[in-house]
Amino acid sequence: MKKLVLLFAALLVAGTLSMSFAKEPTANLSQYKSKVLPVINKYCSDCHDSENEEGGVNFEKMNPDLFTGQDGEHWEEVLNQINRGDMPPKKKKKQPGASEREIITSWLQGEMTRAAQFRKSTGGKVVMRRLTRYEYNYTLQDLLDVQINHAKNMPEDQSNEHGLQNSGLLLGINANQMEAYLEITDRALKKALWTAEKPKIHKGVIDARSLTKNSYPVSLGGGDTELTAEGIYFTPGFYGGPNIFSYSSNPRVPVRISRIGKIRISVKAGGLPDAAGKMPRLRVWIGYNADKNNWTKKLVGEVTVTSSPDKPKVYEFITEISELPLAAVGPNKQGKLSARPVIIFVGQGDEVYGDRPLSLKRQIGGRGLATMDKKFQASKKRYDVLRKKSQHLNDAIRKKSVDAGKDIPRKPLSAAELETYKKELVAVNKESKALEINSEYYAWLKNQRRVFAVSMEYESPYFESWPPKARTYIGSESAKGSQRAQIAIKTFAATAWRRPVNDEELKPYIEGFNEFYAESSDFDDSIKLTMGMVMASPNFLYLVEPSDKHRALSSHEVASRLSYFLWSSLPDDELRKMANAKSSLSSNDLEDQVERMLSDPKARRFAKHFTEQWLDSTRMEGIAVDPNFYPGFKPETKESMRREPIEYFWHVLSKNRSALEFIDSNYAVVDETLADHYQLTGVSGVAFRAVPVTEGDHRGGLLTMGNFMLGNSDGGDSNPIYRGKWLLEKILDEGPPPPPPNVEQIVDEKNPNFDKLPLIEQLAFHRKEEACAGCHNKLDPWGLALENFDAVGNWRTTASLAKEKKIAESNRKQIKVNGKQTFEAIRRGLDMKVNAVAKLPSGHQLDGAIELKAYLLKHKHHEFSEALVRTMFAYALGRSPEWTDKAEIDRLTKTFTASGHKLNVLISAIVNSRSFRERYS
Amino acid sequence: MKSWKIDRRTMLKGAGGVALALPFLDVMADSKKGTPPKRLACMFFPNGVITNQKSEWCWFPKEQGKNYKLNKSLESLEPLRNDLSIIGGLSHPEARKYVPHATAGSFLTSSMSLSHISIDQAYAQEAGQHTRAHSLILSVDGGLGSSNRTRTISYSKYGQPIAAENDIHRIFNRMFVSNAASKKEARKALMKKKSMVDLILENAKSIDRKLGVQDKAKLEEYLDSVREIERRVVRADKWLDTPMPKVAPKAINLKAERAKPEDYFRAFYDLMFLAFQTDTTRAATFQKGNEGDGGSDDIPLLMGYPKGHHYMSHNIAKHIADYGRFDQFWIQNFSYFLKKLKDTKEGAANMLDNTLVLYGSTTSKLHYGRNYPLILAGGKGMGYKHGQYHKFDEEKYRMSDLMVTMQNSLGMKAETFGDSTKNLNDVFLG
User: Fold this and answer.
1) Which CATH class is domain A202-365+450-462?
2) Domains of chain A by residue range
3) Which of A130, A279, A366, B224 could form an S-S bond across to A171 if both were Cys, CB 3.0 to 4.6 Å?
4) Does the domain at residues B38-165+281-430 carry the CATH identifier 3.40.720?
5) Cβ of A175 and B226 within 8 Å?
6) ipTM of the complex as predicted
């Protein structure tokens, strides 16, 4: 890849030297010869000359002319190494003094800045880039208002060396992909255009109060539902099984829905908090009953219920029905085409892990909570009576006599009487036992949060307005044929191509339409095919900025860059109107737009995709949490972990916080699931929100998030190398050296069991061996400082030994603890104390995450800021930053830092930069 | 917009009006001369097997070498033991880093990064030029699936997944049934596609003029992909005029449906068999199920098993006999395929001798992405020697080493495959 970049740079130099500058600056070679070279010769040349060429660096061969030479990237690396203090190596006795270092660095800095300006027309090269898979998807969604995942069958895009997926150079295309585009647009347009006539809308209301115990409810998935006079109460599911109430598998309440388009479901519901005050979550699924016990369904949405049962609120869910499982249409017994009915499931999403009393379905169930309470009190009374009676009977049976009254001898019991007493005791015990279970269950139930549903309403297909968005492009239904098509194609192409279009370039499309139309006489079908063609054009699939010379971008081109930067999609009406009205957009225009666009919900796409790519936060999706180590780990925790960095980024961005809070903060951004996982109290509900944390919570900032701890582990234990590499690459943008090729694994020959040692001990050995130390000393410490976090991001002070882990694993079948087979128990016996002391390459020693964060904030905040700026700059432009961008990135970093590290300031500065608003060829 | 006005017949005869030679006929000539084509079939199954040596359902034999005993799940392979090798110990090192459920896509590519072609497609690049169908890609679920629960095991040369098919009737019709109406329909669809391609190319011209060097290269890549579609259209049109091979309708149960899994799996194998027998294609893949992502995962339920395949694999202690019996069922329909190939004479030998068959999974047992259960069968005509259980040292050998040998025996030129470091010719080729 590096080679390729260099090659391009060379090409560009050759092609653009003719560009006229007012005065062509040249390299300051005299200073190099007189001042810089002597220092290099004194300290560097014994390793970096033609003879040794260590690390591939040879100063004799490197061209000191940064203006026309081709060693710019090498010189930048020299500057970085000296700046970081990596060169000359610490072990060398002969070290340059500060003033000597300064001679090299100041010359390089100056030359690079001047050369960058000189070569501005060659750097800052944005390649005509294809929309990424997710951009293509959002573009279709926004253009056609069909909210399905259009690109789900498209392959992932390759990411570049910084993890960014929108690098123009890498975004390729091939015939299969092209065929996929044709199919996807065809399908999408079919769904989007509907028909000239508005289709029949199916609507229905199902009121829980009208259901009876016999017709319904049906309870699935191990929970209990309670039908009362006011509505239905749900309970949390058992062992991860959600408690589902289905409204419509009952043939008496058939749900008629359209198999295409959106469906709107409104549920009127309230909820009861649990003992800790947490409110329940309401869920809606759609699916069908494949056969007797085989239910297929998919979650439509969930929401935390905030209203109480006596003041129920309406919660609305809108979804594209084609994203959901529907039974296939096929011939029924009578040979007619039919499908099993669609079922809308309404239920509670909370789950209960661990023990809970047996449920005695409907034994308590009465009519409403008040009744239930009354019933409970009554049964408690009865229970007390029964206990007394039981004691009395027991006593009598044991003594074979009964109390006859004060001061009177006990009355003996006859054999027949004794028999009756015994029988009575059995009956009494049975009844009281049942009540005992009942009240235990009831007491448990009182402590649970519960969703209370009153009614459910649906509408299918659902249109926010008619005609649907895609139909508005194709003009009035009364106009006919070719003339209508001309206007339709022009309107549609201008939106899809994100710029005004001229008649000349539309000619093939109009001819195409005429051809299709002549053959089929079907306007809708012909215009659909033609619109598909418009969407197969490079003008749609790529961000095209035609230019063979340096020029300012047009207002439409800037608008497109802006909307793909912040929305991953095409400009909306307002942005397009603005671009139509002006030939170029002023700084003020752009700033206004940035502000507006960041406050639009679509900006969440930016938070998602930028965060995922910047921090590689999706890596953890492919890593399985080892249930042997984390037996209580819940699947939904992983999903919340996946979202945490995105929500955190969104918080910092939308609340205008300092980006240094990515390093450390006095809050965490969590939902209830994650708060439970991190043992933060008082968080209820599915929404992510900032909650204050203290030192003892071990949270704040990105570094200790479960996402990255899991992503950089093997699912069982931590991996300090992965963690160190991640921190270096993502937080500081100091790519660690690549692992040396073909190196045999180095082992401690004195220790035959070396490969069975715990990873951290193997690493300690490698840091001492000279051959390994170079890399391991740079990588390991950053990860070691995070050793207090296990593979799922929980705080720990002891960790299991890798070696013992293996033994335990192979023996676990044989070992039983207290008659019970638990791996957890075995592991506990083999733990060792965690050591999170790390010695950084700079020589600085620190202990644990808190000191690591403090160190980063104090000594590395500039590196972090620059890394973030560089990554966002690259993301905004769709290309890797090159050394010629240094001046621009420095300037952006300064602005960003001066603003108090505000992301919106950085975004505005990038959008207003020349690199963003101009195009170099 | 010139191409709109070209006479359709002229256009479909290709550039300059010269009809291309029909490669299919060359092939027929080939086989008449007595050199039957070499074929490759690869089958994948999900979720792994039972590896507990104490169980009668253990997939791997106890003994290595020639005198191994087939355990219960593999016992239907007994009559074929000299036509196949059982292989243990191999895996893809890159895939070991992932949850094995996410690695079906690496089975035939050795790569998790979507950057490598699968071996069937690599072979089809050459062999597919001579046949009506470039390759046949089947899976019970069809489509692509998601990148971590794939529903296809075939990948293009750019490492992109290629959608698998599962509509048996439709595939059969496409390969073997010719009727005027469907031919007309097909031609119409091709024409439409051709029109679209022309339009795209026409439109791209207007952009071309104004671009810089790098952008031109990007546009060229785009145009290449469009021209490739054009070539596909032209080729498809040629075959439209070549008579379809005649296949007796009872050679396959076209009514087979998922509800009757035995018929259903056999129908997939029959399709592959017929495609090979008629030389409609020489490369086929078949994914027998996905890694617990609904769909085919429920097939055991249809056969009366208590749970889906993925679920049983996670609760193997409880479901060991059920899981074993279902595996036995899968091997039975695999044996059916091998036997059918073996029973069909071809020249002096039989079809199995000219067909290289790979069968396996990227999971040995639950979430364990090493020691893939693999069977390599057939190909004696290409030099294979069979009859043993080979257990390889995973530190020294990778599955891609085996794939190099497969490549070599199929006559492909490349000497490496994916992350291979050597080949296993000495072990398998006589």
Assistant:
1) mainly beta
2) 20-118, 129-197+467-544, 202-365+450-462, 371-445, 610-797+834-859
3) A130
4) yes
5) yes
6) 0.75
